[in-house]
């Protein structure tokens, strides 16, 4: 127990009257409310191990203190989040930033915190101490076969570690690409990357999924070898039915219509999962829903409509994860805000009157279609999201409780004020 159950209960007790008042107000107009609450209770969002420390930029890093210093402490942080909101019941590891030295111990710690292991992440974008070959000019795309082989072996090792922990998926994000015209033969880079992914795919257990994450730019600025959803889709379809595209919301060029991308990938059975964050310019890794919550809602609207059309399970059939960085906020507070934003967008999308929307579309009634979407978007679903939390034993207001109980202070006391988190 990272926070005593009775503290959560006392917090809920104190807020209950106020909360119930708000809840009965919104409950009236929505007869499907209980079904919505059940879906919200089932919906879990994985937390990446690298999001628990203060991020930073190449200009500096300003630690707030109390950051986790080991995998065990990262799990403790996620355990705490999950106790507060009962919606963050999974952790995603990045190898070698996280090295589970004793898999059995890590597994038992996970069950103590009620966490499961989400996608494993490989790292062939940085050189590690003692590494034989450099990834300066790419990994799976590299002109030198030995570099490619090293990257393949690392990624297969990540799968092996994931099997020991009980994970069921691997996310491959490659920073491969080029910075200048002429640096790279695009065709050969693609072929090398595909051949490498094929070897990795062959090592994937039958019940695993491979997620191929794309990114428009950074660290390469002229071309990225998996630069957009089309390229990711090409690899995924050539690999086979265990391979999928992963959408990181910050990895698009400005104004990309992410909701349309999502709808089409879902229709092609090639959407694997998400890295949620928000951005104003690019891969800003800001708190989910902090810049454009309407876009987040529109993405969820496509997800819910598309998943329902295909009879998919909202909670389990896609990978849901946050991928963000916290430069000026407390990472745990930021993650609580991100999870809340995702749940709000999901709840709003569940309120869309899909039949009416379809009728409006078939009548080319553009005004009506907009009204239907915005009616759902403008509904204040926060009491419903809080009610779902309450019913699972979580806090009605996790952020308020985190602050009231001085939980960051407690972490600083135990871990120190200037800890350096592992990873980025
Ligand atoms: C790359 O920018 C990325 O989104 C990938 O998911 C990486 O694994 C992660 O960020 C690392 O910070
Ligand atoms: Mn990502």
Short summary of the structure?
This protein has a single domain, classed as TIM Barrel (Alpha-Beta Barrel), CATH 3.20.20. Helix content is 48%, strand content 10%. It has helices at 5-27, 33-42, 71-85, 103-113, 145-165, 186-202, 229-239, 258-267, 293-309, 331-350, 354-362, 366-377, 382-391, 398-404, 407-415; strands spanning 47-48, 90-94, 116-121, 169-173, 177-178, 209-213, 223-224, 243-248, 271-276, 319-322.
Annotated CATH architecture: Alpha-Beta Barrel
Q: Tell me what portion of residues adopts beta-strand conformation.
A: 5-15%
Q: How much helix, percentage-wise, in residues?
A: 40-55%
Distinct small molecules: alpha-D-psicofuranose, manganese (II) ion
Overall structural domain count: 1
Physical arrangement of strands within the biggest beta sheet: 1-2-3-4-6-8-9-10
Q: Uncertain segments of ≥5 residues (pLDDT<50)?
A: none
What name goes with the CATH superfamily?
A: Divalent-metal-dependent TIM barrel enzymes
- Report the biggest beta sheet as strand number plus sense, adding barrel if it closes: 8 strands, parallel
- What global shape is seen? globular
Q: Helix and strand succession?
A: HHEHEHEHEEHEEHEHEHEHHHHHH
Note the total helix count.
15
- What top-tier CATH class fits best? Alpha Beta
Query: What's the count of strands?
Result: 10
State the distance separating the first and last CA atoms: 29 Å
CATH topology: TIM Barrel
Compute the CA-based radius of gyration. Answer: 22 Å
Overall mean pLDDT score? Answer: 95
Class inferred from helices and paired strands: alpha/beta
